[in-house]
Write a structure and sequence with these properties.
Elements: H1 7-38, E1 40-41, E2 52-53, H2 57-62
Antiparallel strand pairs: 1-2
Amino acid sequence: MQYLLTESEYRDFILRAEKQRIAVTQELQAFCTRVADELPIDGWHTHGKGKQPWGCIITHAQRRQEWYCDDCPAQEQCPYTAKEWSK
C-alpha cells in the first residue's frame, strides 16, 4: 500500500518516530542501569566479597567515582555511548 503525505504530515511522522526512538532508548538505558546496579555477579571488582552487583558507570559517575563496563551484565544491550573499559 502506498500513501502520499503532505510535507507537514511527513515532518509530523518523522518527529513522532524520533520521539518514540528516544523514549525506547531511555527505557532501555534505565533497564540496563538497573540490571547493572542490582544483579549480583561474581567478578574481579568484588575483591573476594562474593556475589555483588557490578554497578553501572552512569550511577558511579554521578558519585564521581571511576568505574568500568568490563563485566557489566548489560554491556551488550546497553545503549550508552561513553562506555569505559579498564586497561
